[in-house]
Amino acid sequence: MSQARPQAWWRQARNDLDLAVLASDNGFHAQACFFAAQAAEKALKGAIVELGQEPPHSHVLDRLLAVLIAQGLDGEPLMALPLRALTRMTVTSRYPLDDTPPAELFDRADADQAITTAEAVLRWVEQLDQPSG
Fold first, then answer.
1. Which residues 6+ apart lie within 8 Å of 56 measured at CB?
2. What is the value of pTM for the model shown?
3. What are phi and psi of 10, to 5 degrees?
4. 119 φ, ψ to 5°?
5. Which residues pair with 100 in a beta bridge?
6. How large is the greatest C-alpha to C-alpha distance in the chain, in angstroms?
7. Phi and psi of 97, rounded to 5°?
8. DSSP string covering 32-66, please?
């Protein structure tokens, strides 16, 4: 299988994470949360593609991780991460809740948590390609 497609997922994940950091640094915390969630999702989907499978049509990070675990990967390092919270940010960071826009629902702490979680996911995926030992 060509490595071009998994690498495209990886490059986009890195790009989304970079945008999350840029957004957070400039006070756009809701957008930072969204792009951090996107980075984690694309990194996990890229790993699924690299294993020769089509990723499920899902934004649920726990579900994507379960696919990788079912393929024999050790997902334990990610199980302690707040993946559910990051998944929820995919929607709540984009659409108003009642009369409150997402820009008023997220702060720097939320963005920091989202970015830290996404960084951990990307590190985990990146180490999958490293020789063990």
1. 63, 64, 67
2. 0.93
3. -65, -45
4. -60, -40
5. 97
6. 54
7. -105, 110
8. HHHHHHHHHHHHHHHHHHHTT-PPPS---HHHHHH
- Domain 4-128: CATH superfamily is Nucleotidyltransferases  domain 2 (1.20.120.330)
Q: How many Å apart are CA 37 and CA 121, to the nearest integer?
A: 10
Residue 100 backbone zone (phi > 0: left; psi -120 to 50: alpha; other: beta)? beta
Q: What are the tokens at 62?
A: 């726990």
Rounded (10°) CA dihedral 74, 75, 76, 78:
150
pLDDT at 1: 45
- pLDDT digits over 36-72, tens only? 999 999 999 999 999 999 999 999 999 999 999 999 9
Q: Mean pLDDT score of the chain, rounded to an integer?
A: 93
CB-count exposure of residue 83 (10 Å: 0-12, 13-18, 19+):
buried
Tokens describing residue 2? 């060509």
Per the DSSP assignment, residues forming a β-bridge with 97 are 100
pLDDT tops 90 at residue 131: no
